[in-house]
Amino acid sequence: MKDETREKLMDVSVATLATALYKRGLRSQVVQGANPLGWKGKNMVGPAYTLRYMPAREDRNQLVEFRNPEHPQRVAIEQCPAGHVLVMDSRKSAAAASAGDILITRLMKRGGAGIVTDGGFRDAAVIAELDIPAYHTRPSSPTNLTLNEAIGINEPIGCGDAPVFPGDVIVGDADCVIVIPQDIADEVADEAVEMTAYEDFVVERVKDGESIIGLYPCTKDEHRAAFEDWRKERGR
Amino acid sequence: MKDETREKLMDVSVATLATALYKRGLRSQVVQGANPLGWKGKNMVGPAYTLRYMPAREDRNQLVEFRNPEHPQRVAIEQCPAGHVLVMDSRKSAAAASAGDILITRLMKRGGAGIVTDGGFRDAAVIAELDIPAYHTRPSSPTNLTLNEAIGINEPIGCGDAPVFPGDVIVGDADCVIVIPQDIADEVADEAVEMTAYEDFVVERVKDGESIIGLYPCTKDEHRAAFEDWRKERGR
Amino acid sequence: MKDETREKLMDVSVATLATALYKRGLRSQVVQGANPLGWKGKNMVGPAYTLRYMPAREDRNQLVEFRNPEHPQRVAIEQCPAGHVLVMDSRKSAAAASAGDILITRLMKRGGAGIVTDGGFRDAAVIAELDIPAYHTRPSSPTNLTLNEAIGINEPIGCGDAPVFPGDVIVGDADCVIVIPQDIADEVADEAVEMTAYEDFVVERVKDGESIIGLYPCTKDEHRAAFEDWRKERGR
Amino acid sequence: MKDETREKLMDVSVATLATALYKRGLRSQVVQGANPLGWKGKNMVGPAYTLRYMPAREDRNQLVEFRNPEHPQRVAIEQCPAGHVLVMDSRKSAAAASAGDILITRLMKRGGAGIVTDGGFRDAAVIAELDIPAYHTRPSSPTNLTLNEAIGINEPIGCGDAPVFPGDVIVGDADCVIVIPQDIADEVADEAVEMTAYEDFVVERVKDGESIIGLYPCTKDEHRAAFEDWRKERGR
Amino acid sequence: MKDETREKLMDVSVATLATALYKRGLRSQVVQGANPLGWKGKNMVGPAYTLRYMPAREDRNQLVEFRNPEHPQRVAIEQCPAGHVLVMDSRKSAAAASAGDILITRLMKRGGAGIVTDGGFRDAAVIAELDIPAYHTRPSSPTNLTLNEAIGINEPIGCGDAPVFPGDVIVGDADCVIVIPQDIADEVADEAVEMTAYEDFVVERVKDGESIIGLYPCTKDEHRAAFEDWRKERGR
Amino acid sequence: MKDETREKLMDVSVATLATALYKRGLRSQVVQGANPLGWKGKNMVGPAYTLRYMPAREDRNQLVEFRNPEHPQRVAIEQCPAGHVLVMDSRKSAAAASAGDILITRLMKRGGAGIVTDGGFRDAAVIAELDIPAYHTRPSSPTNLTLNEAIGINEPIGCGDAPVFPGDVIVGDADCVIVIPQDIADEVADEAVEMTAYEDFVVERVKDGESIIGLYPCTKDEHRAAFEDWRKERGR
After folding, report:
1. Under CATH, which architecture does the F3-182 domain have?
2. To the nearest whole angstrom, how far is the Cα of F145 from the nearest Cα of chain E?
3. Residue A64: pLDDT over 90
4. Beta strands C85-89 and C114-117: pairing type?
5. Are B30 and C141 in contact (CB under 8 A)?
6. Helix, strand, coil: what percent of chain A each, to 5?
7. Residue contact D102–F203, C-beta within 8 A
8. Buried/exposed code over E37-62 (b: 16+ C-beta within 10 A; e: otherwise)
9. E78 Cβ partners below 8 Å, 6+ apart?
10. What is the ipTM of this complex?
11. What region, left, alpha or beta, does residue B227 occupy, with left being phi > 0 and alpha being psi -120 to 50 degrees?
């Protein structure tokens, strides 16, 4: 992902990106059910670094396991590269926590770009105040050992029924999270910027009373021309 | 619906209306799972104008379909009469969006009284700021074409397991949305106003330390008399 | 529950308590799906007083039933001892309300320490403003008679898949609700206070850039020593 | 329940009974999701004897608990009166077993008329061969202690979202199970016998090519007359 | 649909058809959750004739409604053309019946090619013995009025999340039901016959010990040649 | 796993094994929801060989992918060692097939001991006739590419919420499937044989009219003595 791609993705919506991916035949890239935990006013953008959970077997998942410095959950937090988003496959269950405030604080300090689970976080009210984007399905206080064992780091995973490959570009906005295949991230970002410009133009027109027919999507030449003028005026 | 009915319904709760309908044998009129997207401080009230979605077949639901000026989703937005609530049967799935901010802005400009889906809206954070009531189950960024095809306008539909006939009176408050059969809307509104007066009286009494037994519901003459006095004092 | 136990439980998190119970082999004590309805800034703590609902049979659940001064829902509200938390087994369904603002106002006036359901409350926006903690899964306007009949007072119940015995200590924080078996409440509170002190220490360290490996959980002597110093400094 | 009521209920379908109850305003009496485990060719009929499960707390639900002669699951099996149906509220979860072949064999030997759960049975293939009707949602091998604790005997319960009061008349056929309130069991049985006669007549007519319009339900005098003749011929 | 298309579709599997549709970009044509009710040994094939249910409103759905000769459920049974499959959108709920044995017997007599619902049938054990294919999700005894009102005949609908347009070709086998868009039914049938021949050849080879790599799908010339010989031998 | 362990596990039930594992603190080893597809009269026993699916991304999952001889689904079938059970993590969804008859026939020919998925199989009716045990949740005709991409071979996985490590011993009976951690398989098999002997004795006694109290579990010396005699008589 180019630096300017990251910047572009900071200013577009997940909805616009979903449409751009849809044009390319990709229909299932939104992480279903994950919403922001304390929306912090700007998008989350970064390559995916993944953690996979499997069902916990009781003999392998006593609290003492966390004392192991090689425990994958802890290792993932310590190894997720700066600027990356940690994406967790929690098997779509929030019956136990995917992580809590201490680990997410550590990820924040290490420069993590954000964290996503298709389960839930404990200490959610604290995480909502941290300066790192976080997305989950609902607060969940039980320790993850109750339900899940962290078993694989940086493997291809599913998260909220979306496929996630390490390095895919993850974007979260005030609503949802989306996964952009890494090899098309630059072009998708470019296209989304273009689409966003047109959508901003459309919103202005609609607020001025224009009908959406012929305007959104654009099928009338007059709107196309007006949009070009609008862009020039605004330098977009 | 008489004009004064609309006014009355602006000041009663969906819970009170649900009880008034329950008295008439109607148990399933609340739209299950739909909650307000940015509560805007006053009720949504208006006759239902409906849109029905069916599962999307891929060959019929490419982005180009939106270029068709007859596309039912767009037509519904442009034809929903002012003062009406657009109610969408999204088959109880928020896996893709029922609508987004541009269409809902257009509906707002056209005088729509509100919008309801048993799925989710994209651009939810933007919609939460618009000056039109909106109710859904959760934010959902994928375009509706991914999942659903708009197929029927102003037909009887289901929404969140509630039956909705065109013209039924839709009321939304800070919690939920309810469907009042149109032919009883006036009498139900009258009754709800009466019930609300009594409930307001009860809340005052309970805050003063009164027991609910005999007071709510009213089975003691002393409360009935006190309520009459209370109404006179307040001109209700 | 000793008075100081109540005080201790006001200052610890449900997540910490869940871990303390997990150490004792108790994995299922969090009420799944119940979140605070208007977080009021301090924990809910109190012994459980329970109400059990069964499916409503229509002939037994007409509105007139509420006129019966012995109706269990009303009786539970009037008999829940001051300082107790009313916990409702609503069979994990929010399709109808477990209670509404009038009953919860009454409970508040009677000194109830809080109310929990694995269903939903009607008048949720009003309840969110009351000075009593309340936890549910989502707002739900239909009267409870539609779905549920209150049938048992102060029996052992399930709530959100957690076992609840009368007298168990219920704690709710900004995220979730947990059930502490009454005979271990004092020791669990003590342990949670200790754990909270260490967690607070850890958060400070992590914010200063420390790795979590060896720190959380503590496996290095240097952290143990530093923690002891930290406690002395702060008098904890 | 009169002896002849039991006999009548042996020869009518749950579908017919559901319609007879529907006429009386009772819509929720079928145990949702429970189907026969090895249909044994004749209906299950008997008054309900109930067992209620709550979520299992680990410290109370070790295998040793079964050694307690007062364990409610075992007591229920030993005390369920002959001719009664044991109905279990397993909280609609088949993640662990409600009972297994040994207990159900014992119930059979004691003269139990059948067993119903809204969860699942272990040893299901064996139970399917026993000479006692059994209804569940799916086979489930884990011991019930994993999930559920038997807590209440012969209380009002829910089973598959149907309300069950001790003594209600339980009927199961090749499809489903229904709960008939005990005070109307005799009249409902009478009516169902009448309905069954007419339905048998209808099936013959339909097989002979008759349209259902006017025949089912009967709105034409000619069908009414033909039915009377048909009854006389067959002595029904 | 040509007559020979119907014949071809009698001899191919739904799995093969699903793959043929998948090649054309159609991924959602299988009716999710519907399985045969008493597999009758040969495929169900016919154009779709549809019935749409909406949630039942109590005042419109008393038993007396069935006396109306225009009731859409009865009309659909009487008007479904011979050779067609009646497909019902029951909103994916089997909590009440979509139809029962009398109506399905009538449909059989009228020459219906089969019946499909994404809910459940009452009198399921009887229907399993009728000489007409039927597909549902599970037996369900309550009358449909409890839950659903038949509202639309021969409209585009959803059934088990599959899109169904009147006239689409419906095929059911021992496992599942699939919806083939009518304009491609002939070509899909042709292709499926071809695929079936190859699959039959593959099964023989695999039973003889051949590896699937290079054989299924065919990527080796030797298999292609052997298949051609095989076809000639068998005249397929 | 010793050879005699395999033999022992052929003659015990999954229910008995679940109880033996429960004694060791393992509560979640049964594959939830998977039932036999055509019970073939004897247990499935073998070490686990695993396949993990992730959500399918459309560009990576066109039919052409199967032409790749390295496709993990095909490779798993070709590499699963003889005597092993292929266990598939299909993310608990049967919306598309985990495998079909051709692949399972190949696995059978290669000596596979069985196949398990927490999704569904296509060609289920054919598979039910094959001479290899197969367990799934329901028939599902769509090709797996619609939903899932095979991504990992012989990794630790979840299957029906049970943890599965390669080499764990998988046992299936007429009801369910269970996962025995490999290092305790021998001792668990021994214990299950003992338990089965006692259960067989109990069944005989119960059929003779004995109460279960004191007999199951055994808390009376008389039963213990009688059991010893019973074993001697039968040589067990």
Report:
1. 3-Layer(bba) Sandwich (3.50)
2. 9
3. no
4. parallel
5. yes
6. 40, 20, 40
7. yes
8. beebeebbbbbbbbbbbbbbbbeebe
9. D211, D212, D213, E106, E110
10. 0.95
11. alpha
Choose among D233, D172, D230, D169: nearest CA to D200: D230
pLDDT at A66 over 90: no
Condensed to tens digits (0 to 9), the pLDDT of residues F184-209 reads: 999 999 999 999 999 999 999 999 99
DSSP string computed for A116-137: EESSB-SSHHHHTTSSS-EEES
Residues 6+ apart with CB under 8 A from E124: D174, D175, E37, E136, E139, E140
Which one of F54, F58, F158 has the shortest CB-CB distance to A25? Answer: F58
Q: Which two structure tokens, joined as six digits, stand for F143?
A: 């090709």
For CATH 3.50.30.40, the residue range(s) in chain E are 3-182
At B176-190, the pLDDT tens digits run 999 999 999 999 999
Given an 8 Å threshold on Cβ–Cβ distance, is B181 in contact with E57?
Answer: yes
Q: Which two tokens stand for residue A43?
A: 């998008």
SS3 call for F27: coil
Selection from C236, C201, C171, C185 nearest residue C10 by Cα: C171
For residue F74, list chain E residues with Cβ-Cβ distance below 8 A.
Answer: 212-213
Cα distance between residue F187 and residue F23, in whole Å: 12
Bridge partners of D11?
none
Alpha carbons E46 and E41: distance in angstroms, whole number? 16
Between the CA atoms of C104, C107, C108 and C111, what dihedral angle is there, to the nearest 10 degrees? -160
Q: Nearest CA of chain F to the CA of E34: how many Å? A: 9
Tell me if C177 sits within 8 A of C34, measured CB to CB: yes
A–C interface: beta-carbon pairs under 8 A = 83
Nearest by CB to E66, from D175, D207, D217: name it.
Answer: D217
**pLDDT, tens digit, 9 for 90 and up, residues B68-95:** 889 999 999 999 999 999 999 999 999 9
Q: Which amino acid is at F105?
A: T
Measured CA to CA, the distance from residue E178 to residue C117 in angstroms comes to 42
Task: Record the tokens describing residue A45, joined without a space.
Answer: 């953008």
C123: left (phi over 0), alpha (psi -120 to 50) or beta: left
DSSP state of F234: H
Copy the structure tokens of residue C23: 């150490």
- The model's pLDDT over C151-183, given as tens digits with 9 standing for 90+, comes to 999 999 999 999 999 999 999 999 999 999 999
Task: State the Cα–Cα distance between residues E54 and E69, nearest whole angstrom.
Answer: 19
Q: What is the pLDDT of residue F106?
A: 98
Question: How far is the C-alpha of C113 from the C-alpha of C135, rounded, in Å?
Answer: 12
Separation between Cα atoms, residue D119 and residue D158, nearest integer Å: 12
* Residue E22 with chain F: CB contacts under 8 Å: 63, 142-143, 145-146
Q: Write out the two tokens for D96.
A: 């662990």
